[in-house]
Amino acid sequence: MALSDIVSRISVALGLGLIAAATGTAASAQTFPDRSITMVVPFAAGGSTDVVARIVAQKMSEDLGQQVIVQNVAGAGGNLGADSVARAAPDGYTILMGTVATHALNPLILKSTPYDAEKDFAPVSLLVVVPNVLVVNPELPAKNVQELIALLKADPDKYSYASSGNGTPLHLSGELFKSMAGVDMQHIPYKGAGPALNDVIGNQVPIMFDNLPSSSSHIKAGTLRALAVTTAERAPSFPDIPTIAESGIPGYETYTWNALFAPANTPADVITRLNASANKALTDPAVAGRMKEFSATIVGSTPEELGAHVKAELAKWKPVVDGAHIQME
Questions:
Q1: What's the predicted TM-score (pTM) here?
Q2: Rounded to 5 degrees, what angle do the CA atoms 122, 124, 126 make?
Q3: Mean pLDDT by 10-residue block, N- to C-terminus, for the chain (329 residues)?
């Protein structure tokens, strides 16, 4: 599902969710929740997924009248935390802050996952999307995407690009770029975005795909040159940076996303209550301001739209993973 299509539905999705919250449905929704809710973040504290979770959890706590407690269950690229929710009781008291990694890339890249990304979860709401960005060291003689493509085609074996690790959304953003632009460059995986950024700034590796929030301060300082963002629309926080699609690769679009999931078989009325509360949190001006600070675009969706989004992401990334021959234990 294209980001533009998702965002265009936000008012409808939020309106329906708030109506459902106001009217209530069955008895279980009227009494839910009667104790605290655990929101599992399948990554370490401090990352963008953790930040989104804590912002949303605080507002959901206020709306639901019970604490929504963020619990970090990191490991195995997000699989440990996701699996813990898939195996939890389907009562709405354990929910997952899922990502493109847990629900699209890991199932395609890993030889086996302990859960089924579609069958083992009940979608709640697609919350936000975060752009990635194509950055280069300022000494690289490429001021835009077309100049970069020309450099790569002129000397296919000369250039490499960094990412935060094998099989990450940023790695796959680079592989999709190579495929759609018809170019080649060697992938250099790092253990996290920080070390990769250091080497790009130091010109050990000239090119990188990164999350926009983690590169933003370096872009503003001039230690990195941003060529384009990876979303279909320009990022509101950097309106002067063009998109890759408008820079000569139409149809290119990647981004990181965060969404809420519950275990499969969670009652529909409980899902409706969680959806309404999460979407209500997204309408809060303070939440909108915090999200904008790190370039996240607020979405908000129905459970059905999130389910369709997961299907679309799996379909989009499968040929990229297969074409790059990415397979991990």
A1: 0.80
A2: 125
A3: 58 50 49 96 85 95 97 89 97 97 93 93 96 96 98 95 88 93 94 89 96 90 97 91 97 94 98 98 94 88 97 92 82
